[in-house]
Amino acid sequence: MATAGEIAAVGVIGAGQMGSGIAQLAAAAGCAVLLLDADSAALSRAVASISASLRRLAAKGQLSQAACEDSIKRIRCVSTVQDLRDADLVIEAIVENEDVKKKLFVELDKITKPSAILASNTSSISITRLASATKRPSQVIGMHFFNPPPIMKLIEIIRGADTSDEVFAAVKSFSERLGKTVICSQDYPGFIVNRILMPMINEAFWALYTGVATQEDIDTGMKLGTNHPMGPLQLADFIGLDVCLSVLRVLHNGLGDNKYSPCPLLVQYVDAGRLGKKRGVGVYSYGQKSSSVKP
Ligand code: 3HC
């Protein structure tokens, strides 16, 4: 099994916002990165945004020009899981669906080298259950990054029931190599951060739904009243309302307490396709004036 220092080749699956941010971090830390997505347009967008982000850092003097260009060169786009056969660590950041992730883990288990560590960037799906789809559960672990990964300072590491101490230690030092602070969670629904964050976001939806205040006042209240960089409704739009709803459902099903039951307004927004910033409309509208749609 690879130790942190030996993690030289990293496979990242999913070229969305999280996957490209993770690929950028690994490349900047000196790893050879294999960025996998079946959608070639998504890969092109990811490479463009990673290059722009690294060049912005170079322009600000946080990275030398040479290190920036070398990091970009270290990223290779690939389109099949077989291309990840030489990776020391694979981090998946695909759709938040347990069956889809399990199928991927079965495939990864077959094609990656026996020493490879398999990590999931899941927001809330059980690492133990993903690990049980493989014949190497001691080498499966959760590596939960926060959006935007290049900026957010945290990685939440989740130990599945069988994750070994060696794998935990290797992933912890690798995360520190990426410049992140690490916290460790046992494998219970929502782990640490989403277990606390999502009920707050849900409560903000209840406040809006029951007419306590406007979305702007709820967000301004939490921004200025508690020094959060974004209000909870703005943050929900940023994360994706579908992601928030799916995490709340995992919390509700897994912990069995009604306090996690998603607010009907959040459910209705997701049903209506108002998924947040990525769709141009969520609680707020983007590219236009703020939405004045009333619950
Ligand atoms: N990639 C790289 N850099 C980025 C970026 C991105 N996607 N977005 C912003 N930045 C950089 C900007 O270049 C800027 O850098 P500079 O200060 O050196 O010039 C800096 O971040 C600040 O950006 P802006 O001035 O454009 O905007 P803000 O000051 O409003 O900051 C924010 C944007 C960093 C996103 C800030 O609003 C924030 O921290 N929001 C909260 C984000 C958060 O809570 N994320 C976690 C969500 S939960 C999660 O991800 C878990 C999941 O499981 C649900």
TrEMBL record:
Keyword Oxidoreductase: yes
Residue ranges annotated for the 3-hydroxyacyl-CoA dehydrogenase NAD binding domain, each copy included: 10-187
Pathway: Lipid metabolism; fatty acid beta-oxidation
Binding site for CoA: S53, K60, S123
Keywords recorded for this protein, A-Z: NAD, Oxidoreductase
Amino-acid positions noted as binding NAD(+) in the UniProt annotation, renumbered to this chain: G14, A15, G16, Q17, M18, G19, D37, E96, K101, S123, N147, K278
Domain (3-hydroxyacyl-CoA dehydrogenase C-terminal): residue spans on this chain: 190-286
Stretches that traverse the bilayer: none
Superkingdom of source: Eukaryota
Biological processes per GO annotation: fatty acid metabolic process
A molecular-function term among this protein's GO annotations: enoyl-CoA hydratase activity
Reactions catalysed according to its record: a (3S)-3-hydroxyacyl-CoA = a (2E)-enoyl-CoA + H2O; a 4-saturated-(3S)-3-hydroxyacyl-CoA = a (3E)-enoyl-CoA + H2O
Site (Important for catalytic activity): H144
Pfam families for the chain: 3HCDH, 3HCDH_N
Protein family: In the central section; belongs to the 3-hydroxyacyl-CoA dehydrogenase family. Belongs to the 3-hydroxyacyl-CoA dehydrogenase family.
NCBIfam families linked: PRK07819.1 (NF005875)
Record's protein name: 3-hydroxybutyryl-CoA dehydrogenase
